[in-house]
């Protein structure tokens, strides 16, 4: 069954049970009714402050966490409850921390070769070695690095090893969970450019999770903005960046540093008041209303739906 979308997520929920006392339990709503689509070869950037549920979306999408509710479709086929072993070849992940996501007891050759072993993607040892060296070349690593261990590499090189491991099974979709946030700024540009080059060569689609809005705009076709487990705005990358509609998106973009001092002086920084509500004790209605200058009575009673405001620009706000 084919579909216009490679990935389709409908009303995805991920609640974690938290013990609050003897025989008492409450639920932390890390992801609460998220929906989006990603086309083949497209990059969807997912942004939001720490703790808003970005990483949980990525992990739940790949079923590293079993979803509490909602549906996940891959290439038109529902995979919410399906055995994931066969789909691991199609969907991969690049983890945030290149220091802890690589086995320190394995050589680079074995780290990259492990997916090949699991899915039996070679017939001879020579073919396995050829594939590993090709993957290393693809991500900018030298053949002599194959026998070394992860601790012998810099952060940028380790992340390249992680990317080569994800590419080993020739996936159609990769979740990139803040893949450059642990790297030096000088290395970040190299790794982001490499992601783009690989996309052009291999046609892979990305869910690119990040904090840095400049990087997200650079690499993404569309951008989704998350706040406390919900998507509050989603649309074309340039459209969201140039014409943000949701008050939270406006405040996020006002904090992006501008390299030109004259322009930066005229830029009005919007500082949000109040604290982020606890996901264990969410306010009624719109989750952002306690920090929003435009909040009305309606915002406290009803949670706004994500609605199309034209040209595929969706916003969840009663007043914008």
UniProtKB/TrEMBL annotation:
A molecular function GO annotation: ATP hydrolysis activity
Keyword Signal belongs to the record: no
Occurrences of domain ABC transporter (ranges): 7-253
Keyword line: ATP-binding, Nucleotide-binding, Transport
CDD domains, per database record: ABC_NikE_OppD_transporters
PROSITE patterns for this protein: ABC_TRANSPORTER_1, ABC_TRANSPORTER_2
TM region(s), chain numbering: none
Any one GO biological process: peptide transport
Family classification: Belongs to the ABC transporter superfamily.
NCBIfam families, per the entry: oligo_HPY, PRK11308.1
Protein name: Dipeptide ABC transporter ATP-binding protein
Taxonomic source organism: Candidatus Choladousia intestinavium
């Amino acid at each position: 069954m084919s579909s216009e979308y490679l990935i389709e997520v409908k009303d995805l929920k991920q609640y974690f049970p938290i013990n609050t006392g003897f025989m008492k339990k409450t639920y932390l709503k890390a992801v609460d009714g998220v929906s989006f689509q990603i086309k083949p070869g497209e990059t969807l950037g997912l942004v939001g402050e720490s703790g808003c549920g970005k990483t949980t979306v990525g992990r739940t999408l790949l079923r590293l966490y079993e979803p509490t509710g909602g549906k996940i479709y891959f290439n038109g086929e529902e995979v919410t409850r399906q055995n994931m072993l066969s789909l691991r070849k199609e969907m991969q992940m690049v983890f945030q921390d290149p220091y802890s996501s690589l086995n320190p007891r394995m050589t680079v050759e074995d780290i990259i070769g492990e997916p090949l072993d699991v899915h039996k993607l070679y017939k001879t040892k020579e073919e396995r070695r050829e594939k590993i060296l090709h993957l290393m070349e693809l991500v900018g690593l030298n053949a002599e690095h194959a026998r070394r261990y992860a601790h012998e590499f810099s952060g940028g090189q380790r992340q390249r090893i992680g990317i080569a491991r994800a590419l080993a099974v020739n996936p159609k979709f990769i979740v990139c969970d803040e893949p450059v946030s642990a790297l030096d700024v000088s290395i970040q540009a190299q790794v982001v450019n490499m992601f783009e080059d690989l996309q052009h060569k291999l046609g892979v689609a990305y869910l690119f999770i990040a904090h840095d809005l400049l990087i997200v705009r650079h690499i993404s076709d569309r951008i989704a903005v998350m706040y406390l487990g919900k998507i509050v705005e989603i649309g074309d990358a340039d459209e969201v960046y140039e014409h943000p509609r949701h008050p939270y998106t406006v405040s996020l973009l006002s904090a992006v540093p501008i390299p030109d001092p004259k322009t930066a002086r005229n830029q009005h920084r919007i500082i949000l008041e109040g604290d982020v509500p606890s996901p264990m004790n969410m306010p009624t209605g719109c989750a952002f209303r306690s920090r929003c200058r435009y909040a009305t009575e309606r915002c406290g009673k009803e949670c706004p739906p994500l609605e199309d405001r034209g040209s595929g620009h969706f916003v969840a706000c009663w007043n914008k």
